[in-house]
Design a protein that fits this description.
Blueprint (H helix, E strand, L loop, with lengths): L3 H16 L3 H8 L4 H13 L11 H5 L3 E6 L6 H11 L4 E6 L2 H8 L7 H9 L6 E4 L5 H8 L3 E4 L7 H10 L5 E4 L9 H13 L2
Parallel strand pairs: 1-2, 1-4, 2-3, 4-5
Length: 205
């Protein structure tokens, strides 16, 4: 059974493998350990064959983590998003969130997003339950899925993606991932509704 600190280190190494950042610096941000203490912990994980010499995860190290993937536009962060992402994080050890590109957002919402894809990525990355936020691939969503290789794909209560489509797409990339449909306690909360009500209130002043 992995200790909490070991899981934190493995999770951080996993995230850094994807975004190309230094795991030591990120682990220092998340814990109270010094660099020497972190390296000592990583050496222990190497002895247990969970981490390679180059500070990447071995297959056993990767399999010891449960990665959850969630996606959406996230144009206006609202309580429904927070609840859903917290619920997604509770399903595993690492939560990776994919934000839709601007072009995909226009197709989904039938309007130009208020925030650019880079701004939306930055907003989602700032949320405490999110370990990593990526911008999606327009031509093939399963390219990102294949990069992340999650064990669980979490769908929001209002997402149009069909579970069968996700499951069949995962099979094509030889990924055995389960699909979790998340519920929201605030079903009427949506970015489009907030924008509409805000616009009406401004015009009513």
């Amino acid at each position: 059974m992995l200790e909490s600190i070991q899981r934190t280190i493995l999770s951080t190494i996993y995230v850094c493998q994807i975004d190309g950042t230094d795991p030591i610096e990120k682990i220092k941000e998340k814990t109270a350990f010094t660099e020497d203490e972190i390296n000592s912990k990583i050496e222990e994980l190497m002895k247990n064959q969970l981490v390679n010499d180059d500070k990447t995860l071995t297959e056993s190290g990767r399999n010891s983590l449960k990665v959850v993937l969630a996606g959406g536009v996230f144009d206006i962060i609202h309580p429904g998003h927070i609840y859903t992402l917290n619920a997604a994080k509770e399903l595993g050890d690492v939560l990776v969130v994919v934000v839709a590109t601007d072009n995909t957002a226009v197709k989904m919402k039938k309007r130009q997003p208020l925030h650019s894809q880079d701004q939306r990525q930055e907003l989602v990355n700032s949320l405490s339950m999110v370990d990593l936020c990526l911008i999606g691939q327009e031509e093939d969503i399963f390219k990102t899925v294949n990069n992340v290789r999650p064990q669980i794909i979490a769908l929001g209560y209002d997402q149009a993606h069909q579970e069968k489509f996700i499951t069949e797409g995962c099979k094509k990339i030889n990924l055995d991932a389960s699909v979790a449909r998340l519920q929201s306690p605030i079903p009427d909360s949506s970015s489009s509704k907030i924008e509409k009500e805000y616009g009406e209130s401004i015009h009513g002043i």
